[in-house]
Design goal:
This protein is an alpha+beta fold. The two termini are 45 Å apart. Helix content is 35%, strand content 17%. Helix 4 runs parallel beside helix 15 and helix 13 packs antiparallel against helix 14.
Length: 629
């Protein structure tokens, strides 16, 4: 009876989706408008600017493009199992985002070469890939085609050259034709209940937006229909089921029946959000919002990432323990992307809160000091070590994908809305916007996150009435905001403070965020504490000496439960963002206890990320007191 009920529920959800789609065609409803629009340009300074330039110079421009293209050549189309065909698209979309942030002639010429080189391999039937003809559609073939389409569409967005769009159309047409000739099914292709293959939904929706060809909308709707069949990943009907518990544990971890694959699952939901923008089907938006909340609440750790051996596993509750292959950088990047998508769609501060935490911790922590390499996995306690090469390509998936996360944020830092300007993130820089028809520049002066003081100034051609919305992070409990010295009151952490008034050139906005050291505690599986300052986790690092990295240390708290942090000098010679001293009471074997000792803490992204791979520690295990229980 339970099985019948489950099947009935699945069919009812599928029927609801089908019926909703029947009344959600674009010729009947206008596409959904996003709540915010990106800045026309952003010029960052200081720490983030340096990290992005290093990534361009030492990773994006240093890449051997010919090596990325080689697998696609006719003589090399012998693949039956691996994923070489993803690397070109991941690298290219990283490079395209970097170019959108900072248009540069050298980078543009590299993009041109990469596209023309790839298109030279496209066969008359439209195929771009490296799989042997008898093995097309198998394993990672469709996944690779997805990344090729995303790259070609990104190039079209930048250049508006029709032949790039035409080539992406040919790839899509070839895929649809081959699927129809086979069995018409995409959810039985490759591993992970079809999630890798059916994540092609995203570029298919983007193609529909570019061409208006209903064939692509029909294909997108068919993909989503197949999700809800028994063999599919059931991404909508299981949207309220914990992502780690949707299907029984498979006998083979990396297999067709595995339904907990983190990266591919989130990629599918990104596509579903694009389909929502086209159709206005509320079931799609609700599914993405519900899953986002579930991932945040059950999987995302203090650093803003998660997953073990690339799967969801209920990891938030276990984050203070040693975890195998933790925090794959591809998972980190792909968590950042739906956060950004939902921020763009809704403008809600909670999405920026999560993205910021991920950006400053898990993402920047996976990038080495000079941007040439990205760690495959990054533990919360341990070492940062380079990942291994994959598929004979000279790099791995995370090194190709890491810069996609890095350049995902800049143009969303300051955005426009239908009624004004919205400040989502804080960084020293200049942001040019088109606000209600006028050119507006917002300049931020700050050393955030080293400091919580942010000064903003507006430059505009004439006085105008509009709203300026500023995110008040959920962690900032004591915030001050003023305009030209006039205090703005009733600030709510975790929301946007909205200021509507007549603005004139040179108006100044001052924001002071609460940067006190916060203690984060977990009681499972053992009582442990971590320390955050603003959006940044602090960590111990063996480089700085002091008590052994394994010493049991109890933080000295003030009356309000915060820990005092004082800036410490950097004598290591390594590039470290934040360095502090704090007082802890060490474990004592005497009746009277030990006096406090000073311990050095640095930001998580810098921990273990110097000239030597030192051991570091985010979670500090605390003593058990049976007498107090």
């Amino acid at each position: 009876m339970r099985k019948l009920t489950a099947i009935t529920c699945t069919l009812l959800v599928a029927l609801f989706i089908f019926c909703a789609d029947a009344f959600a065609q674009p010729n009947k409803l206008q596409p959904v408008s996003d709540a915010i629009s990106p800045a026309l340009s952003a010029q960052l300074n200081d720490y983030l600017a340096k990290r992005m330039q290093e990534s361009v110079d030492n990773r994006i421009l240093a890449q051997d493009i010919d090596r990325l293209i080689a697998p696609f050549k006719t003589e090399n189309r012998t693949e039956t199992r691996q994923w070489q065909s993803e690397f070109w698209g991941k690298w290219f979309t990283s490079a395209a985002l970097a170019y959108q942030y900072h248009p540069d002639k050298k980078l543009k010429s590299v993009l041109d070469k990469a596209v023309t080189g790839l298109l030279a391999t496209q066969t008359p039937d439209g195929y771009i890939g490296n799989y042997a003809e008898a093995h097309r559609l198998e394993e990672w073939d469709i996944w690779g085609r997805k990344y090729c389409m995303l790259g070609l569409l990104a190039y079209y967005d930048i250049t508006k050259v029709k032949w790039s769009l035409t080539s992406a159309v040919k790839v899509a047409d070839n895929l649809i034709s081959e699927l129809n000739k086979k069995d018409g099914l995409i959810v039985n292709k490759g591993n992970y209940r079809g999630m890798a293959a059916s994540s092609v939904l995203e570029p298919i929706c983007l193609l529909y937006n570019c061409t208006g060809n209903k064939k692509y909308l029909d294909f997108a709707l068919e993909i989503v229909r197949q999700w809800e069949t028994p063999e599919g990943p059931q991404l909508i009907s299981k949207a309220n089921v914990n992502v780690s518990e949707r299907f029984p544990r498979p006998k083979n971890w990396y297999s067709p029946e595995q339904g907990q694959k983190a990266y591919e699952m989130m990629s599918c939901y990104e596509g579903l959000l694009e389909l929502y923008r086209i159709t206005r089907n509320p079931a799609y938006k609700k599914a993405v919002e519900d899953v986002w909340a579930n991932i945040r609440d059950t999987e995302i750790n203090i650093a803003g990432s998660g997953a073990s051996t690339e799967m969801w596993f209920g990891g938030k509750a276990l984050q203070s323990t040693p975890i195998n292959h933790y925090q794959e950088t591809c998972v980190t990047v792909t968590w950042l992307k739906p956060c950004g998508q939902l921020l763009r769609l809704t403008g809600q501060a909670k999405y920026a809160d999560e993205a910021e935490r991920t950006y400053y911790n898990a993402l920047l922590g996976s990038m080495n000091g000079h941007g040439a390499n990205w760690a495959k996995y990054t533990p919360l306690n341990g070492q940062r070590l380079a990942g291994s090469e994959q598929c004979g390509m000279g790099l791995n998936c995370c090194e190709a994908s890491g810069p996609r996360g890095l350049f995902n944020i800049p143009l969303q830092m300051v955005t426009t809305t239908k009624v004004g300007v919205q400040v989502n993130y804080f960084a020293d820089g200049t942001f040019k916007l088109k606000c209600m028809g006028d050119d507006v520049t917002l300049t931020q002066r700050t050393i955030y996150p080293r400091s919580g003081s942010i000064e903003m100034e507006l430059t505009l051609p004439k006085p105008a009435v509009f709203e300026v919305a500023i995110r008040i992070p959920a962690w900032s409990k004591n915030t001050k905001l003023s305009v030209n010295g006039e205090a703005i009151t009733n600030l709510q952490p975790g929301s946007n403070a909205t200021i509507k008034r007549k603005w004139s050139n040179g108006y100044k906005i001052s924001l002071e965020l609460d940067m006190r050291g916060r203690l984060i505690e977990t009681l499972t599986p053992a009582h442990s504490i971590a320390i955050m300052r603003g959006p940044v986790i602090l960590a111990r690092d063996a480089r700085f000496g002091g008590p052994s990295i394994e010493a049991v240390l109890k933080p000295v708290k003030d009356a309000n439960g915060y820990i005092a942090l004082s800036e410490a000098p950097n004598t290591t010679g390594d590039d470290i963002l934040m360095l502090y001293k704090a007082s802890f009471i060490p474990e004592s074997y005497t009746e009277n206890g030990a006096p406090p000792v000073s311990v050095t803490l640095c930001d998580y992204a810098s921990a273990g990320n110097g000239s030597v791979n030192s051991f570091y520690k985010v979670w500090l295990v605390q003593l058990v007191y049976p007498s107090a229980e």
